[in-house]
Amino acid sequence: MPDELIDIASAREIVLGHVRPLAPERLALADALGRVLAEDVESAENMPPFDSSALDGYVVGDLEGGDLPVVGESRAGAPASAALQARQAMRISTGAAVPAGGVAVVGVERAQAANGRVTVPPTQDGANIRRAGEDVPAGERVLSAGDDLGPAELGALAALGRADVVCGAQPRVAVLTTGDELVEPGGGPLQPGQIRNSNAYALAAQAQRAGARVVAREIVRDDRAHTVETLARALDAADVVIVSGGVSVGPHDHVKPALAELGVEQHFWRVALKPGKPTWFGTRGEKVVFGLPGNPVSAIVTFHLFARPALRRLAGGDAHDTRAQARIDVDYPREPGRDQVLRVRLDARPDGWHVTPTKPQGSHVLTSMLGAGAFATVPRGEGQIAAGSLVDIELLR
Ligand code: AMP
Ligand code: MG
């Protein structure tokens, strides 16, 4: 059955069916950026913790206004020691605790102070007072397992008094690039037939962006023994092995037989996708292997569609967090047997997101990725997809 291709959605289901989150670990808050939370977090205390002033001004003991004695001050970090009585005022700064007996705050620009007294207008109960627990009352859920930890989440955890949090582990990734033609950037002028190893850099960066740690990065020669040896080491060192190239059926493609020799079980091979048909996926125990096409665009596309969801799941996060829809701005010819994944510019318009192909879409045109904010899927079929159609997109993060 040489031409039996699996569709994208089924391939992704197979991948996710073979990965589950790695054991979580406890991390200091300052080390948790980019991780996925692995616990539900409730507020142990009210946030904010006490009634406080929203303004610099005067806190008053009744609502009537008039000429009042200023009996003290409440500053941020230095609350007033005495309570406030009716017909009294106290100076108060933004964020400072409202003293016992304080019923409202009048902003400094509405008050006239002189000689230890202040004249304020009548006001309303609770004016300019932020209540304890107004943001989050004690006991309320603030964050949930699976949430991505960005700057706002870390700030909220700090506000809740959390010095450390339980996070999903960072999957360890090995990036192996196969090919006798590959030369590292900086490796001198290209000899006839040589090309630069761009996949090692793009794929490693994608892995890092997906929350993984790259633990190995190696060029594999088009040689059976070297392929087996390098793959064996990668399987020991990493949770996920990404191999680019060498997975087709040419006489110099050693990846599939090498993986079979190492006991890695194939779960799918070849996807109804353009670019990215020759994509291979297998596992050995908990270890996950992706054999991605060598063409630079195909490698990036198939990493995003298949390897990224696996890494997200291993890290404890949402595997589908990049999916959205947009309107395509051009007619585009369909392919009868394969869904196409286009590199598209993403534009926000009053009626929503729109996408346009960046430039010609050959799988070797690496610069078609530049400026691409998303991939857009043109479903297989006859004829063309019409400009204005709604298409599934994958946001590139
Ligand atoms: P392969 O799948 O090994 O037949 O490779 C397909 C195409 O991708 C060939 O033109 C390769 O030269 C190219 N290619 C393979 N690996 C890389 C790489 N690491 N960086 C850039 N291009 C590559
Ligand atoms: Mg090759």
What does this structure look like?
There is one protein chain. With 397 residues, this protein is α/β, with parallel strands linked by helices. 18% of the residues lie in helices and 31% in strands. It contains six helices and 28 strands. It has a six-stranded mixed β-sheet with strand order 7-4-6-5-9-8, with no helix packed on it. A six-stranded mixed β-sheet has the order 16-13-17-21-20-18, sandwiched between helices. The longest helix is centred in the last third of the chain and has 19 residues, at 296-314. It is elongated and about 95 Å long. The model has no long low-confidence stretch (mean pLDDT 96). Bound molecules: adenosine monophosphate (AMP) and magnesium ion (MG). Magnesium ion binds at residues 178-179, 245-246, 294.
Percent helix: 10-25%
The major sheet is characterized as: 6 strands, mixed
For the secondary structure, the number of strands is 28
CA radius of gyration: 30 Å
- Small molecules (ligands, ions, cofactors) in the structure: adenosine monophosphate, magnesium ion
How much of the residues is beta strand, in percent? 25-35%
Number of helices: 6
Net shape: elongated
Helix-strand category:
alpha/beta
Whole-number average pLDDT? Answer: 96
Task: Name the strands of the widest sheet in spatial order.
Answer: 7-4-6-5-9-8
Span of the ends, CA to CA: 36 Å
Low-confidence spans: none
